[in-house]
Design a protein that fits this description.
CATH architecture: 2-Layer Sandwich
Order of helices and strands: EEHEEHE
CATH class: Alpha Beta
Number of domains: 1
CATH superfamily: SUI1-like domain
Number of helices: 2
Distance between the termini: 42 Å
Strand content: 15-25%
Radius of gyration: 18 Å
């Protein structure tokens, strides 16, 4: 497939409208307060060569706030990880530590799955 016919990240390949411009909806999402967040904590090993990670899902907000929360959780657990695609990945099995930190910091609707 040639580069000019390759679809972009949003699924658009070509538009016949000369005035078309894609408006990303990522910037329109407001971060919910910690009390309104419903975070789910689970253990995951899929596509990680058998390595165990703690996965925090369900965050509603901006990418910057997701990365900020991920950084706090990773530093609290003392491990590495990532924050992308609306979820936070913390290396290792830290479900209890993460749940303890979230409840302490007003994320009352969080639970282990």
């Amino acid at each position: 497939m040639s580069k000019k016919n390759k679809p972009d990240n949003f699924g658009f390949v070509y538009s016949t409208d000369p005035n078309f411009s894609f408006q990303s909806e990522d910037n329109l999402v407001e971060t919910l307060s910690p009390e309104a967040q419903k975070l789910r904590i689970r253990l995951d090993t899929k596509q990680r060569a058998g390595k165990v990670v703690t996965l925090i899902e369900g965050f509603v907000g901006t990418v910057e706030d997701l990365e900020h929360l991920g950084k706090k959780l990773k530093s609290f657990c003392g491990t590495g990880g990532a924050a992308k695609d609306g979820e936070i990945i913390v290396q290792g099995d830290h479900r209890d530590k993460v749940l303890q930190w979230l409840i302490k910091n007003s994320y009352k609707n969080s639970k282990k799955v």
